[in-house]
Amino acid sequence: MNAPISAKRVLPTLNADGTRNRIHPRPYAGRLMTRRRVVAWALMVLFIGLPFVNVGGKPAILLDVMKREFSLFGHTYLATDGVLLMLLMLSIFAVVFWTTALVGRAWCGWGCPQTVYMEFLFRPIERLFEGTREAQIKLDKSGLSDRRIAKNIVFLGLAFGVANVFLSYFVGVHTLRAWITEPPAQHASGFAVVLATTGLMFFDFAYFREQMCTVICPYARLQSVLLDRRSLLIGYDVRRGEPRSKGKQKPGNGDCIDCQACVVTCPTGIDIREGLQLECIACGQCVDACDSIMARIHKPSGLIRYASQDGLDTGKASPLVRTRVVIYSVLLLGLLITLTASVLTKSAVEVTILRGLGAPFSESGPSVVNQIRIKIRNRSAVQQNYHVELPGLAAAQLIAPEDPLLVGAGEQRTTSVFVMLPKASFEHGVRAVRFQVTDTHGFRAEYPYQLLGPQGLTR
Asked: With 88 labelled, which of 8, 150, 212, 426 sits at a CA distance of 20 to 30 A?
């Protein structure tokens, strides 16, 4: 069997001599496992299907880092949308704080893709090839075998599939389909990205596994400041369980018979009876394991259960609504309202007016000519025709080589226009004007700008 948890061990995944202690959890049927399985399969369907869903003509989620465009449920955020992106990130952090204050690390055990894929896809397939926990431990000692090689081949295929699902959130399903179906020489960099991501996924699910939660993920280290004594977590009822009996119930002892079921089922290898630990992902597998043992020895369930630290100490349920939760709720609600209002009021057109390249202006007889560059980004889901004009300035002549300017959905184009004004229109070398941009679908907006002219002239 795996080495027992001891005070000498730094991490559950390491033995005292520094060698890897491979975790092979034994699953126990129970109400929580049934619920987690339903949630996990629903989430896997969601993870796989979401990149194929379009909202408003755009992918539901597309984080195009190369183009610096982020599409979320019909709305596109650009790198220039600093305020919106900041509000979005703050909202995500507020959700993390609020959720952790309420239900601890339930996300880690029930919703995190690492846990979902590991516990409900890769481990079941591993047990199909290698057998029970005891058989897997023997294989660890004997090295490679035909069964383990076959398992790893299947794991590699699954890693390729998971890697492609992961990448589809960043490059889109159409680009990814081209990378996969067309010759690698046509998409050498894309093919390399797919291979590298597949390798990382295979390494994670075939070898690194629970160490992703205990060593890499920072969430565990944040729980000390995000949790309080009334947050919901997995806990062992010391008042009821101690002192322990060994193997058989003894008069005067607690209900715990030290069967180790809660230890051998833990996917991160901890002993929950030692108290709250950063490795605990609140999956509840130890709850099902302990409840099954309690049923055999005719004791009430719940020796290990979801509860708060105060609830375990006092035996009374702690209220979920408290000052910290109220503060997080108000903060989250305020952020979501602000973010929603900002998104709804965000214009579907982004216009930037820049001075032309070269000389700031030129003179043509009695007139001054300014070359202006106008960048128009169409944030809508359909192509648009844009018209630029200078309203309320009869003396001005606007020359637009492209009028109207056709801009495709989600694209940006730059056009140059020339503005001719009499020299007498300038005062101290400048003239304030307002460019008006309209489209065929009702968009109309004005943008202030200052034209430049010769110094020393007055009107």
From this structure: 212
d(CA 404, CA 415): 10
Q: Which helix (H) or strand (E) holds 203?
A: helix 188-203
In DSSP terms, which residues pair with 448 in a beta bridge? 434
Q: In angstroms, rounded to a whole number, what is the distance separating the alpha carbons of residues 170 and 70?
A: 9
Amino acid type, 226: L
- Residue 326: CB atoms within 10 A of its CB come to 11
Residues facing 372 on adjacent strands: 355, 417
Q: Is 370 helix (H, G, I), strand (E, B) or coil?
A: strand
Residues 195, 196, 197, CA angle at the centre, nearest 5°?
95
Cα separations (Å) of 67 from 70, 336, 380?
A: 9, 26, 17
CB burial string 429-444: b at 16+ within 10 A, e below: bebebebebbbeeebe
Rg (CA), the chain: 31
Query: Which residues sit opposite 387 in a β-bridge?
Result: 438
pLDDT band at 100 (very low <50, low <70, confident <90, very high): confident
Q: What angle do CA 63, 68, 71 make, to 5 degrees?
A: 40
Residue 267's pLDDT is: 94
Q: What is the DSSP letter of 215?
A: I
